[in-house]
Every structure is written in C-alpha cells, then in structure tokens.
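Dataset card, provenance and construction

Sequences and ligand SMILES were collected as paired inputs. For each pair, a complete structure of the chain with the small molecule in place was predicted and serialized as structure tokens. The example below shows a pair involving flavin mononucleotide. Curators did not alter the output after generation; any descriptive sentences attached to a record were derived from the structure itself.
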Amino acid sequence: MKKILLLLSTVMLALASSCTNDKTATDMNENQTLEVLKTRRAVRTYEDRMPDKELIEKVLEAGTYAPTGMGAQSPVIVAVTDPQVRDRLSELNAKVMGSKSDPFYGAPVVLVVLADRTVPTYLYDGSLVMGNLMNAAHALGLGSCWIHRAKEVFDSQEGKALLKEWGIEGDYEGIGNCILGYNSGEDPQPKPRKANYIYRVGM
Ligand SMILES: Cc1cc2nc3c(=O)[nH]c(=O)nc-3n(C[C@H](O)[C@H](O)[C@H](O)COP(=O)(O)O)c2cc1C
C-alpha cells in the first residue's frame, strides 16, 4: 500500500510539474511572438550599414518555413546585397511608377519573393513568405517593408533577363520585394485598428 501511494504521488508530482513547465514555456513564447507580430511596422528610413550575413540568413530561413498550399513550396527568394543589382532593381521598380526616386528608401538589402505561377496557391504562398520575412526581420532588430511592383518588374524584358542571369527558370511571378536594413529614424507607430476588423461568431 505504502509503495502504491508513493508511486501515485510521484506520478502526480511529475504530471503537475510537466503541466506547469509547458504552460510557462508556451506563455513566454507566445508573448514574445505576439509582441513581434504586433510591433512590426513598415520602415521607410534606412542606414547605409549592411546587416551581418548571419542575420540576413536567419530572416531567409524564416521565409522558407512559411506555409504553402499542399506544402508545394512554390516561392523562391532572391537575396540581393550587391549594390549594383540592388540599384538596378530600384531603377526598374521606379520606372513602373514613372518615378526617379528610390522606392527602396535607401535599404541596403532587397529580398525578392517570386512564386511559380503554375501552382494554384502561388500568390498566397508568396505573400506568406513575405509576411514571415518581415516578422523575422523585426524579431531580429531589423527594419523591413513590403515594396510592391515585383510583378511588373519581373514580367518586363529587363526583369526576365535578371531571372535568367540568376538561373531562375520557369514561370515565376514577382510577388513582392522585402527591403531590409537598420532603421535610421523613429519607430513608426501603427494606425488604430478599424472597429469592424473582427466579426465574432459563437464567442
Ligand atoms: C501588398 C503590399 C504592398 C505594399 N507596397 C508598398 C510599397 O510599394 N511601398 C511602400 O512604401 N510600402 C508598401 N507597403 C507597406 C504598407 O504601406 C504598410 O504595410 C501599411 O501602410 C501598414 O503599415 P505597417 O506595415 O507599419 O503596419 C505594402 C504593403 C503590402 C502588404
């Protein structure tokens, strides 16, 4: 009897401690993750300083873990740190807008996300990669912003030539450019969330 009681209390203690540990770990992780998701903002002022390669690699890795329809991994990411290529992309992007200013706001890094048009979910897949890249950047202390017009740029002859140069073959559509770097200005503040953002049904 004594042995059974001892065994029972050991099992209960182990269970209680595992529950407590799980809860603490989950709460901490959730809070940090939720904080990152809430505080990430579009950064439009950048230092010239290039982030360390290790940081850029971490952002890229997070991008590759975005969910994709049927796990098809339709997107690809082109990490551009070469200043000449970065400037060429800026020029082509500005040309789509009919502007001469730098649409990349001086950011030293451009992560171009493209996705395979033959996969039905390509647009959603690529957009989720963009989201992962921007949130990961913020988690690591880097500023980022989605810069549009990747579709127009990579549908153009000049853009197609770049894809060929980079060895990207197939029917790829430009989804977005995630610019990266160190914020040289104030932390941008979010707009208040609109009142009817969430409709609750059954809660
Ligand atoms: C699909 C998409 C396209 C965007 N294109 C641009 C762009 O070309 N230039 C720019 O400065 N910001 C662009 N943004 C950034 C948005 O303007 C920004 O996310 C929005 O104002 C909300 O600000 P926040 O990201 O700080 O919450 C884009 C964002 C998304 C999601």
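Derived descriptions for this record:
Residues 1-39 form one domain.
Confidence is low (pLDDT under 50) at residues 5-21.
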